[in-house]
């Protein structure tokens, strides 16, 4: 299956980056690709075998979906892997570089949207995350 990788360097230490990436109350503040969307619900059981469910919705109510998966590997402050309910795999690594953290996400693409659209969407979410973390 084809994969796409997006990455960004966050100007914060890895423990803060990990906390803001994995805390549902924070996830709701950055987990969307455009200002017209939001993430009104974020829930997960952060353990191997635990489930995640992030409800993604257009603010105008025209569209919504649940992003759901099961965690397959977790190494706090280093690595997160999960399998989406549609069978695709996602790997996210966190690497501390001095006072900064490099976040690298690799995901298997789906067939509904173009690869470039998926890359842009995932990268936009990662950019939102960077802005959110650096504002803290």
Automatic annotation (TrEMBL):
Q: Which residues form a coiled coil?
A: none
Any idea where the Activator of Hsp90 ATPase homologue 1/2-like C-terminal domain is? 13-134
One Pfam family hit = AHSA1
Instruction: Cite the InterPro entries for this sequence.
Output: ASHA1/2-like_C (IPR013538), START-like_dom_sf (IPR023393)
- Gene3D superfamilies reported in the protein's UniProt record: 3.30.530.20
For this chain, the family text in UniProt reads: Belongs to the AHA1 family.
Name by which UniProt lists this protein: SRPBCC family protein
């Amino acid at each position: 299956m084809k994969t796409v990788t997006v990455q960004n360097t966050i100007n914060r230490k890895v423990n803060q980056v990990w906390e803001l990436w994995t805390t549902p109350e924070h996830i709701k503040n950055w987990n969307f690709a455009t200002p017209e969307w939001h993430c009104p619900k974020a829930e997960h059981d952060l353990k191997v075998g635990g489930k995640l469910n992030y409800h993604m919705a257009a603010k105008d109510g025209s569209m919504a979906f649940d992003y759901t998966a099961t965690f397959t590997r977790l190494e706090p402050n280093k690595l997160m892997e999960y399998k989406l309910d549609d069978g695709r795999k996602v790997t996210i690594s966190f690497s501390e570089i001095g006072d900064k953290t490099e976040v690298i996400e690799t995901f298997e693409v789906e067939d509904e949207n173009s690869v470039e659209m998926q890359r842009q969407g995932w990268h936009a979410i990662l950019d939102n995350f960077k802005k959110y973390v650096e504002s803290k």
